[in-house]
């Protein structure tokens, strides 16, 4: 399985970015997909997860109402639309695929495959 995240960059407070994650390998539509982030000096933290159908999503409280996760099964893509960005959102963002089909996990240990990450920097 290969996961390739992209779309990061430098944005001002209040701005928006859309992250993309291209997946290949296992049958994409069989698995939930998640986004995590890791800020400098901090542990990796859960951001959002989407079910394999795309019909169910779950967010960390810190991003709820500002971020939206979605997927395009035809393109094997997962997206993270990030609005109203804050300096505390600065981190490397990783997409990930869990070990078990459709497990909408919120802890990193439940995920088997990880993308390389894309850096998001929000300036104040």
Description:
This protein has about 120 residues and is mostly beta strands. Helix content is about 0%, strand content about 50%. The strands form 2 sheets. Strands 2, 4, 5, 6, 9, 10 and 11 form a 7-stranded mixed β-sheet that branches. The radius of gyration is 13 Å and the shape is globular.
What is the average of the pLDDT values?
96
- Distance, first to last CA: 37 Å
Helix content class? under 10%
Unreliable segments (pLDDT under 50, ≥5 consecutive)? none
Largest sheet: 7 strands, mixed
Net shape: globular
What order do the SSEs take from the amino end to the carboxyl end, as H and E? EEEEEEEEEEE
Structural class comes to: mainly beta
Residue fraction in strands: over 45%
Count of helices? Answer: 0
Number of strands: 11
Rg value: 13 Å
Give the topology.
Blueprint lengths: L1 E5 L2 E4 L4 E8 L8 E6 L6 E6 L6 E3 L7 E6 L4 E6 L8 E8 L12 E4 L3 E6 L1
Parallel strand pairs: 2-11
Antiparallel strand pairs: 1-3, 3-8, 4-5, 4-9, 5-6, 7-8, 9-10, 9-11
Essential attributes:
124 residues, mainly beta, 50% strand
